[in-house]
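Progress note, project year one: complex with zinc ion.
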Amino acid sequence: MPNTKLFIKGNLINQKNSDAFLIENGMIKKTGKTKNLLGKYKNLSEVIDLNNQYVTPAFNDGHLHYFYYSLLKDSIDLKNCESIEQVYNKIKSKAGQAPEDSWITVINWDEEQFGGVKKLDRYVLDKLSKNIPILVKRRCLHLAFVNSKALELANINKETKDPAGGKIVRDKEGYPTGELQDESIGIIDDIVLEKQRKRFKNILKNSAKDFLKRGITSIHTDDLGHKKYREDIFKSYYELANDKEIPLDITLQLRVTKKDDFDYYKKIREQTKDIKGLKTGPVKFMFDGSLGGRTAALRKHYTDDTTTKGELLFDKEKLEELVERAYQLDFQPAIHAIGIKAVEIVSKIYERMNKKYPHKNLRPIIVHASMLDDKLIDRVKKNNIVLSIQPTFISSDYKMADKRLGKRRAKSLYRMRSLLEKGIHLAGSSDAPVEDINPLYGIYASVKRKKPNQPQEKSWHPNEIIDIKKARELYTTGPAYQNFEEDIKGKIKEGYKADFITFNKNLFNIKSEDIINLKVRSVYKKGDLVFES
Ligand SMILES: [Zn+2]
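Model obtained:
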């Protein structure tokens, strides 16, 4: 008999008629009652008692940056800092102990956490260290701040030109202030990356457990934007998958800025064809920035800065040309668009492409699609556009969003219930390292629309709250659909992969405030135990 395992006495959430399932070669062959299946199947390789633990399909994260998440594990994380003094002290003390040749990298800076007034620049950071280079990234990753030492090592000075798609902010005399926007951050990333190049594979491997611990066994990761390093990063993923070194299914999202990029991606699509656990997914384009950085493209000015409407990072025609190339080469397209203007242009491009290539069922994706009006929602539905959304943006950003857009306009953000009622496919994700990878935070944000652990806070636009079953689907069937895997992933059902989690409590039957405290007890990938707490 092939490798057959019978799992018995599980509490399958929402599946009343079965508490057991048979697995053959990693796939679910049969579900049913323990008594019946035990009687029916003999000569099993193994019988595993789930001890009445609650069983749910494993989670799937539809968009994140695994490599950058892994890199940032060495960084100072400001997420839970309560005061600006605490921020300064953390950086200062790490700089004080840092070896001469090293860099201090800091993540999750968010001025809103400290009243929204404080801006970082080299003058502030030089007070923390003059000799050790410091790089501080804003939570949205579209803004960064460096000290003078970092500017010096990166050769960024008065004469340096702004790179395409980026800006080096300068003072009145033209000297860089240490604030870097979008692509100009890449100049610094480059130097930091060069230091870590040889360790890429280990850096990736070291993070796998973080994901398993949260019940995640599939991820869609966008890491190949850095052309200089993309072959090294790809090779690391390739070797890890080929040698079965990480128990995660990885779909690579392929960052495109130029036509030539398609040649490279065609090559690696071919190379990964027969590799289990690694596949190439959509080609990804960046079209606007972020709300936090006021670079998401709007139709009208920002409420808290009337000098800007955000910006488009691509020429519309050029973007359309590249998307057409994707259609011709059968690459699923995925475009980052947050502001309503960007989302509108992208949906129109997809509409034209779907008309021109009616037989290509590519399931085009808009990554984020944060702002939508009713007309746009209809267009998204009509063109079967998948929205790759981040529910935790609600709990992290709603106060900032009200400021940036004004309360009325902010109603067009994160309209999850309206989207689901229209039957639009939503794939939930963390966008890590932007947000925490734990899907339970996203589920909480979807059903509460507020920050956790703040009982006095009210839900933000509660009319867009969704129920917990739909919230879970955002992290199971949603990303599976995005990746053309809806027939094999996201359910505990015959014909599906045996990727599942056990919990100590029933996710569907607890107080919503307790969702984030649920503990994953065990994780199975294709029927094999890959994590246990
Ligand atoms: Zn992202």
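The chain has 18 helices and 23 strands.
The mean pLDDT is 94.
No further modelling is planned for this target in the current period.
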